[in-house]
Fold O-succinylhomoserine sulfhydrylase.
Amino acid sequence: MTDDWKKRTRAVHAGTRRSQYGEVSEAIFLTQGFVYDSAEAAAARFENLGQDEFIYARYGNPTVAMFEERIAALEGAEDAFATASGMAAVNGALSSMLKAGDHVVSSRALFGSCLYILEEILTRYGVEVSFVDGIDLDQWRAAIRPDTRAVFLETISNPTLEVIDLSAVSDLAHGVGATVIVDNVFATPVFSRAFEMGADVVIYSATKHIDGQGRALGGVILGTRDFIRKTVEPYLKHTGGAMSPFTAWVMLKGLETLELRVRAQAATAQAVAEGLAGDARLARVIFPGLADHAQSGIIAAQMTGPGTVIALDLAGGRPAAFAMLNALRLVTISNNLGDAKSIITHPATTTHQRLSDAQRAHLGIGEGLLRLSVGLEDADDLLADLRRGLDAAGSPKS
Ligand SMILES: *Cc1c(COP(=O)(O)O)cnc(C)c1O
């Protein structure tokens, strides 16, 4: 049944499991354990875990299973494993499949904690990691070796919104039998075509657009049933990265409105990006929906929409960026993204503070760069607020 449904129907109905009470809204099974009718039934359940048979919430829970089934149906994946946060998902996907001696190739422009896992943790356990500039295919070609086990990348980089050619990188990786693992937050489940483009494993921080209302941390790993149940699940169920049933309920309700929210936010982001492009106080406005984006050809092939995040590079550097932030009255200074509320952050001094000056320069994260996550407010109100901010930032010295 679910297989015939279109995306919007899946978002509302896929994975629903009703209890004997026939509730309309999904129930929160806020229980860590499950009762067995007899000693024999307990023994049998431990021996042969079936799809609807739960034994302990770290292994699985009905509300969590509903979320996993619904997001898998939306993304077109065979299966999914829900996790306590986006980082538990990234760590779970990588650590469950890698062992000492394995080689990984990763793009360099990563979310800070992803970089920490690859650079500091995996290498401590004997995994060799090579970093490349994600948009340079020659670097991927040179780095991927016959013994490469996995490649890791963010389809759209944070915060400079470079878009990696997933199809080309997947072809190179599959040529040596490597698994393609994609952190797909910025592409969103609504606009992503990651599996069609060759990804083997797709990860979301559900904290972002899936919740979309700033309430809960969560994550999910999507892939083949074999990978999820035989590789990911044994690692996560024993190491404790499970999503809580309450969080799963929040995320399930988030999925029902995900497409409506993300499409509305993307349309507003488009209007805001177009409204600000060309302003003399901005050295660059980077948005995948603008025709002048450096990877516009890849975007057209790989994504069905532009996303909800804009990068604004102020010509006046850090003083201008801070003056703008401090003058805003509607857009809030914070570091989440994908939220119903528009949020702005100065990556150089917050999310990317840990990097060295040289690393930031290499990634194009200048002192004037701001990352704007566009929410559900009216585009005119947002533009008025952002223009007030730019007025406060003043004209750059010529
Ligand atoms: C937020 C984010 C993460 C981490 O997710 P959490 O839910 O905060 O643990 C990982 N990757 C990307 C690209 C993100 O934006």
Observations:
- Residues 2-254 form a domain with the Aspartate Aminotransferase; domain 2 fold (CATH 3.40.640.10).
